[in-house]
Hints:
Blueprint: H1 6-12, E1 17-20, E2 26-28, H2 29-45, E3 53-57, H3 62-71, E4 77-80, H4 87-96, E5 99-105, H5 109-119, E6 126-129, E7 136-137, H6 139-142, E8 157-158, E9 161-163, E10 169-174, H7 181-187, H8 190-194, E11 204-207, H9 214-225, E12 229-232, H10 238-248, E13 252-255, H11 257-265, H12 268-272, E14 281-284, H13 291-301, E15 305-311, E16 314-319, H14 321-326, E17 330-334, E18 340-343, E19 356-361, E20 366-368, H15 372-377, E21 379-380, E22 383-384, E23 389-392, E24 398-402, E25 408-410, E26 413-415, H16 417-424, E27 430-440, E28 444-453, H17 461-471, E29 483-487, H18 500-508
Parallel strand pairs: 1-12, 3-4, 3-5, 4-8, 5-6, 6-7, 11-12, 11-13, 13-14, 14-15, 28-29
Antiparallel strand pairs: 1-2, 9-10, 10-20, 15-16, 16-17, 17-24, 18-19, 19-22, 19-23, 21-22, 23-24, 25-26, 27-28
Helix pairs in contact: 1-2, 2-3, 4-5, 11-13
Amino acid sequence: MGDLGFWRLAEADPEHLALVGPDGTERTAGELLAASNRAAHGFRELGLEAGDTVALLMPNSIELIELYLGAIQIGLYLTPINWHLVGPEVAYILTDSDAKVFVAHERLADVAVAAAEEAGFPADRRFAVGTVDGFRPVAELTDGQPDTAPDGRTTGAAMHYTSGTTGRPKGVKRGLFEIDPSDMGELLAYLPNLFGIAPHDGHVHLTVSPLYHTAVLMWTGNALHLGHTVVLMDKWTAEETLRLIQERKVTYSHMVPTQFVRLLDLPEDVRAGYDVSSLRNMVHGAAPCPQEIKRTMIEWWGDTIQEYYAATEGGGTVISAKEWMERPGSVGLAWPGSEIRIYDEDGVQQPPGTIGTVYMQLMADFEYKGDAAKTKANRIENFFTVGDLGEMDEDGYLFLRDRKADMIISGGANIYPAEIEGELINHPAVQDVAVFGIPNADWGEEIKAVVELHEGFEPGNELAAEITAWAGTRMGKFKLPKSIDFVDELPREPNGKLIKRKLRDPYWEGVDRQI
Length: 515
């Protein structure tokens, strides 16, 4: 093929600045290439073969990128785990993904140890960046390995976990292609291309969100494949973003609307004190963006603001700032070579101006690992849906009108109430429970729980705090209800189905949900 793809580019220009860590540590393309090769040889020495899985529980770091580039050049699946999860949740993913190697960071030591023990993960396959009890130093995986390219290179893939409505996370697993990893890296350039982001061209990509998110790892990996410099952030703050844009001459990034809100919360003189003239493509997705917020960002950052609609499973649509100003609220036109369709509940395709379920064309086939029924249920021909409702105008621009009725999107993260309900119902005081999203000015939505109590328990702030604290031992903090209300009886249909809209709708009266 051509001359793109990280490994090929790194051999051609080893002095190119490829990566800047959260603490400012720099890695040239040659250094990153050598580290990724050592990781690949280390995985091979442990007996890993194409199709095996490596699981990571790590914050954004140079080490994460090194392991990622090592794994996917020898046909491995790489599963980056959400580090907000707690031990049992991580253990489930370790087991379900069939991970053969588990690498954790010392900052997440407690969760890593609890997960590895619960999953019965082999001690000799546990590695740590830093010091984690019972884990081997990651140096034992990589040190002393050759820094030359491994033989029989073939393309691997990330396998991210996305929660399902049944509450258990599902691995989105795509088939592997027997293709040179650099050639695959070149093919992946189609995504940045949709936004007019070309190879090389002095581009600097700023990674502002955790790499366990599908889109974040995809954008970061693609930047490396296109010969761009990647600057990693670990703990995101608005002003640090502006500082890095100015210092590193950042040209593009991938953000979520909550980050726009935080940027606009900065005092005007602080915002004005940073030079952001290097920006060319500031792409956002993952959650609906309030129209007022988006307009203000366009006034500040101009035509650099671009939006897309997609999912872990695929996608999607894209829209420029100019198009959005002409069609406020739209998420754009289908990607080139793709198609968006609207179907009713009977699977009949709907014409423009009719609201129905949004289906996107599969770019690369996938399955929900171990769940053929879920995979099939989301398909019509070679189109899939994540359950969002919308309509298209006569020109093909998509407008989202609703989304999965129960899914909560808070700060760009998808939160599934069924999973939370499945845990809360286990508390001794809880007889019945409903969880849903209510408006939050900063995060878009926050989690509300409504609880029906067993006899003998007194509703009140003390019990609400006790339930929340108890839930915190079973779920990640980002899944905990912000507030708990108590009712005598939850509204249910005669067949037992919860009528959640009766609880949720009053909170949204007069509020534009921006969906």
